[in-house]
From TrEMBL:
S-adenosyl-L-methionine binds at residue 3. One of its GO terms (molecular function) is rRNA (uridine-C5-)-methyltransferase activity. GO terms for biological process: rRNA base methylation. PROSITE patterns: SAM_MT_RNA_M5U (PS51687), TRMA_1 (PS01230), TRMA_2 (PS01231). This is RNA methyltransferase, TrmA family.
Amino acid sequence: MVDPPRKGCDETFIQTLLTLEPKRIVYISCNPATQQRDALLLAEKYQLEEVTPVDMFPQTTHVECVVLMSRVEK
């Protein structure tokens, strides 16, 4: 499970995930833009399975997103 700050994951952390190759990654984020950026970097070895937006802050523009990614077996 990954739940980074608004700025998203740093490059070292992304590379560590790609090296460790967990079977699944659950990525929780309060910033869809950085979550998308990080998901594109992880797409090297992972495919997007599910995206679930969660309105934790009603009547605001803020939304949490929960993304499930699965390792692509070669």
